[in-house]
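Sanity check record (used in CI):
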Amino acid sequence: MFLVLLISLVNFVGDIMGHPTTVTDTSSENEVHTYNFPFVTRSEWHARKPKMTLPLHTPVPYVVIHHSYTPPACRSIEECENAMRVMQSMHMDGRGWWDIGYNFAVGSEGSAYEGRGWSTLGAHALHFNSVSIGICLIGDWRNELPPEDQLKTAKALIAAGVDLGYISPTYKLLGHRQVRDTECPGDALYKEIQGWAHYSPYPGSATDLLNLPEIPEKVKDVMRGNSTYDD
Ligand SMILES: [Zn+2]
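Expected output for Peptidoglycan recognition protein:
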């Protein structure tokens, strides 16, 4: 409650001071929701400002599950906030992206961490970002499963996305490897999510994306090598 009041106050002061509304303002701090699991906002983990943002058209028809591989599993809020900053730096400085790639991440202590959020286009699954929310379960889940709290929060986050209208009620759940040549989200976690509600075995490979009606023609042209993402 205090957080809601504080954010309202900050926004109100911003308004009366006549600050221009920037695109980044719409992506995170202005969206205040109450969740039934611990949720850590960008400002709480001291995220850097995105270099740029584009809107994500919601509700999205897909949810893509990832693991971080590195950084390894984090088991306290402090460790997980640090992991978020490490991933954001890897993505912004190492890969030259605008921000941390994922829409959200989940730590082994059972908190969800705001990445790009519900309404901002992510950079987590090539050619698939415009139709999906990407959730990273922080850790290396090739050989072992995330702890129960981490799995539970990931599922609750998806359910919240449906309730809030950001994820289609008929969404399909995928592992990253189904849309890209990668081992992500790790063998153990991939096996686990195949038992979750809404898991879909199709698409099963990156080439299937060309047959998905949800993917914009513009993106398919890039996949066919006829165009680039330069607009
Ligand atoms: Zn991935």
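The chain has five helices and six strands. If this sentence no longer matches the regenerated tokens, the check is flagged for review.
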